[in-house]
Task: structure prediction
Amino acid sequence: MKELDTLDYIQNILSISPNPIILCSFGKDSMVMLYLIRQIKKDIPVLFFKEPFFPKKYSFANEIIEKWNLTVYDFPPAFTDFISNNGDFEVINWYNGYGNAFLYVPTGIHKYEDGDNFICAREDLINKPKVLKYNFLWDTIFVGHKNNDKDPIFGITTLKDKTVQVQQMTLALPISEWSDEDIWDYILENKIFYNDKRYNKNDNFKEFDDKTYNNDYHPCCVLCLDNKQSEFIMCPKYNKFVQNISLTDEQNKFKIQNLLSFMGYMNSN
Result:
């Protein structure tokens, strides 16, 4: 039933959207959404934002892009920002969208282990090259967010609507009402490819603790974003003193609420 309702929704969105695109990370949810949409429109392009680090993380995505002969777009953000909550940190990428709209996509980061290759939140992510204006052609973006998804910063975020208008740009969320169990049942039933280096089939398809092949998270130092650190930090990545650019707890809380409102989410926690 969910499959039929979702296909009806996708068909309706495609019938009123002159130029749609799929925002895809090639995780389990994105793979189901991509598969469903391609049942109706085979040649729909994909938007896949990548960081320039850790190429192993993108091996599965590159395999699917080749197997399914996908047309894939990627470009740098217009600007970057950051937020934190209860010791978790996230770098925010703001991309030019359709018309005057912007699209928010995070770069997930996690604490690196001693001896790991890692990146610097400030120098490698926040200060990375930008493109101030990009000719964004697509009026509608399909997004694979689910209402039971839990984010370390935002918690569980529920959509106000299944279709969200961000100025002139439409965000369509066809699998918002699916559960994780629905996703895995559909993957197995339809023999959809999934990243078996990220999801452990021997443990109810939970994600492996090792995030080497998880392109949603990057090992990263965040000392200079942490308001519990001193004003100047010795950067372990570049071996130099840098200024702490962290925000107060109140500033972070204000940013989080603004982001939830902007993207059409409401926090369920």
